[in-house]
């Protein structure tokens, strides 16, 4: 997993509450077994018209948000099913962090286990960031996991909370498999003591 320490990026605004995982990555695209290749289908039903053309009215299709790597959202983002494909699609599209007033618990945990940082700020702070992103061209913010704060060059600063174990995993780029492999020597020693028919 790619470590997350401090990221500065262009901000895109998706000003919608209760965005569920079926909107993030619709069920018909859940046929891959790899974690890659889902980005092109992110928000598919909103990004595309029934004709297959891009929906010019959808926020992420606006030219000002091309190459955005930080997503601002409404409350309860990632509700619905527990599909891990949702953070896979967001990361594959290019997002490194998502900022909102609240996230569905399972979605937030899936993000953290896949190197995508969900940041909870107050609705007032999220609203202020959204206003700046819509009014200022090429608006960027910095998400600093080491200092646990979000800042911009215009003087905005807000602290965020994150559980320390999850923070350390992100800082070091450790997913569940990496955490297990830290004990590889002990695991191998245990396996070597077992009868051969149990190995």
Explain what the structure shows.
By secondary structure, this protein is an alpha/beta fold. The chain has one domain: Aconitase, domain 4. It is 32% helix and 16% strand. It contains eight helices and seven strands; from the N terminus they run E-H-H-E-H-E-H-E-H-E-E-E-H-H-H. The chain has helices spanning 21-24, 44-47, 85-93, 105-112, 123-135, 164-172, 176-181, 184-193, and strands at residues 6-14, 70-73, 97-100, 117-120, 140-144, 149-151, 157-159. The protein has a seven-stranded mixed beta sheet. Strand 5 and strand 6 (149-151) form a beta hairpin. The longest helix is centred in the middle third of the chain and has 13 residues, at 123-135. The protein is globular and about 65 Å long. The model has no long low-confidence stretch (mean pLDDT 92).
Draw up the topology in text:
Blueprint: E1 6-14, H1 21-24, H2 44-47, E2 70-73, H3 85-93, E3 97-100, H4 105-112, E4 117-120, H5 123-135, E5 140-144, E6 149-151, E7 157-159, H6 164-172, H7 176-181, H8 184-193
Parallel strand pairs: 1-2, 2-3, 3-4
Antiparallel strand pairs: 1-5, 5-6, 6-7
- Helix percent reads 25-40%
Mean residue pLDDT:
92
Number of helical segments with 4 or more residues: 8
CATH topology: Aconitase, domain 4
Radius of gyration: 19 Å
Strand content: 15-25%
Structural class: alpha/beta
Question: Termini separation (Å)?
Answer: 29 Å
Q: Shape, please?
A: globular
The total domain count is 1
CATH superfamily: Aconitase, domain 4
* Counted beta strands: 7
CATH architecture, please?
Alpha-Beta Barrel
What is the CATH level 1 assignment?
Alpha Beta
What are the segments in which pLDDT stays under 50 over at least 5 consecutive residues? none
Sequence of secondary-structure elements:
EHHEHEHEHEEEHHH
Query: Spatial order of the strands in the main sheet?
Result: 4-3-2-1-5-6-7
Quick one: biggest sheet? 7 strands, mixed
